[in-house]
Protein 1
Amino acid sequence: MTTSLIERYRDRLPVSPQTPVVSLGEGSTPLLPAPRLAASAGIRELWLKWEASNPTGSYKDRGMTVAVSKALEQGADAVLCASTGNTAGSAAAYAARAGLPALVLTPEGAVSGAKLAQTRMLGATILEVQGSFDDALRAAQELAERGAHVLVNSLNAHRREGQKTAVFEVVEELGEAPDVFVLPYGGGGNTSSYAQALSELGLETPIVSVEAADRRETLATAIRIGEPVHAASVRDAGARVLDVSDDELVAAWRALAEEEGLFCEPSSAAGLAAVLRGDVEGDRIVVTITGHGLKDPAAAELHAPRPTLVAPDPDAIASAFAGRKR
C-alpha cells in the first residue's frame, strides 16, 4: 500500500487527526544520478529530483494534497486557482478526489493544450482570462476573499508546507544535504518552500533559483510569470537568482532527454541550464526537475529532431540509422 505524503510527514505538516487526507500517492519521487551531464559540467555528483513522477506529472501535487485536505477539513464549497497549467491539473485532480468543484483561471492562449486537456478531463471549470497570469491571479485572489472558494495557489500556506517535503526526501536519501539545491523560478513558491524546509532542518544549504531571461515571453510557459508573487520570500531566503535564455533552456532540455533519458517540460530544465553553463558551484548538486515532458508535447514537436523518411528496405534503414548514431 502506498503511504501518502501527509502520513509520511504528518509530524511536520499542519494537519491533525481530524484532517481528511486527500491523496493520490504523491511524493517519494526518485532522486536520480546524472553521470553524463555531471561529466559535461565538470561536477563530481549531479542528482536529479524527478518530480515528474507525481500523480499529475508535476511537483504541484506535494502541496495540493495538503491544501485540498485542509480545504475539505474547513468545509470549503470549492477550490480555486489561477494557473499556467500545472497547478490547474493538480487542483482539478485533488478536488475531484475530495468531491469538491474546482474553478481554474488561465491566461488566454498561454497554456499548453495538454495541460488544459488534463484539467478538462478531471472535471474542473476552466475560464480563460483576457490578460496575463498575473491578471488571472489577482482576479482569483479577489474572488477567494469573498469566502466561497479556497485559493490553492502557492499563496496558500498549506500548499507551501506540502512542497517543502521534497527537501526532506533528498536529505533522507543522500544521508545529508547536498552542496546546493537548484530549481526553476516562476512564482517563487517552491524556493520559499525549500527555504522553509532547510530552516526546519537547521541547515544553511544554498538555493539557486533560475528564471527565464524574458519572463513574459519565454517558451517555458510554466514559468511565464511576469510578477512572481514570492519575490520577497526568495530574497529573504537568500536564494541566488540566475536567468537563462530560451536557447540555453532548450539545449539543457534536450541534453537531459538525450543523455539521461528524462523527458521534462521546458521550464523544468531551467535549473539544469544554469548548471551546464557553469554558474553553480558544488561537488554534489541536486537539481529539481519539476514537470513531465508530456505536459507540453507541442514544444517537443517544435524542438526535437524530426523523423527521417526511408524506404521499407533493411539496407536503407541500416544506412539511415548509421548516420544518426551518436
Protein 2
Amino acid sequence: MAGVYISYPFCAQKCTYCNFASGVFPRALEAGYLDGLRNELGKTEWVWTPETVYLGGGTPSLIDPAALADLLVAIPGSPWQEATMEAAPGGITTELASTWRNTGINRVSLGVQSFNTRELARTGRKHTAEVVEREVAILRAAGIDNFNVDLIAGLPGQTLESWDDSLDWVERLQSPHVSVYMLEVDEDSRLGSEILAFGKRYGAPDIPSDDQIADFYEIAVDRLARAGIPRYEISNFARPGFESRHNLKYWRREPYLGFGADAHSFDGKWRWQNPESIEEYLRGSKPERTRADAAAEPFFLGLRLDRGIDRGIDADWSAFQPAVERFIREGLLESSGNILRLTRRGVLLSNEVFAEFI
C-alpha cells in the first residue's frame, strides 16, 4: 500500500549538523508555502488510498494546527494506519498534542539528537533531557504512545560516557522506536563545511574520530537489542510492531507521493523530485521523471534492512553476481539460502557496498 510524504522545510533555527534543504525563512514565505501545499494536494488524482502519512522537514510541528488540519483533510484514507509528525523538543504542549491526535497524527518523531546539555548547546538545540521526558509524558497522555527518538553518534565533544547517558535516557523513556545516525560530514551543513575546512567553529575540532563514532554505533546496536529494541534497518531500531510503516516503504520500494519542496515520489516504475528551493517550488516548476532501476535498487535499498533481500522475490542477483561474491569473500555480505544480507562489518561499510550497485 502507498504512503504520502509532506515536506515542511521551515525551522525555528538551523542546527549546525543539518544538511537538509531546510532553515529559517520569512514568515510571509511560510504562508505562501502552505498555500502551495494545499494547491498541490488539491489537484492530485488519487489512484490509490494512502495508508501512511509522514510530515518531515524542517520542523513540521511548527505548523499552525488549523493549517495542519487543512492539509490532512485533503489526503484520503483517514484514519491512516500510521501518521507521523516530526517535532523538535521544547514546544510540545498538552493542547498541541491533543490537536495532533484529533487530526489523525498517531506517531511523533522527536529530534532529540542527544540528552547531553553541552552537546546540544553546541549544535544550536535548546532542549534538555528533562524537557524531552516531560513532552513524552504529554504525548502519551494525549494517546500518542508511538514515538521515535533520534540520536546522532559523532557530535562535537561526545564521549563514551555521554553516549551511554543518552542511551540510558532512551531506556528510561521506554521509547518504542529509536533512530541512530552517524554524523554526516559534507558541505551541506555548517558543521560539515567547518570540518572539511579544518576550522574551529561549531566544535569542529572536537568531533570524535571515525573509529569512535563506529564504536558508539556498535554500542547502541548492542544496548538497544538488550533493551528489546532490535535493529531492523541500518539506522532504525524498534520494539516488535513499532517499526516505521512509512519508512519501510522506501526500502521495500513501495509507492509513495511527496508534496512540497524537495519531496520525492515513486509510483513503482518512475521516480521524480520536486524542486529543492521553496521559491522554485512555488513557481510551479515541473519535476523530471526518471525510470527506477528495478535491478539495482533492491540492493542499495533492500540491503539496508536487517532481513536482507530474497533472491527471486526481492531481486535477481545474477547481474551483480561477481560483486556479490566479492563482498561475501570480504566479509561484508553473507548468504543463507536465498537470503542475502549485510554482515555486522558490512553495515559499517555499507556505503562502499551500495556504491557497487548505484
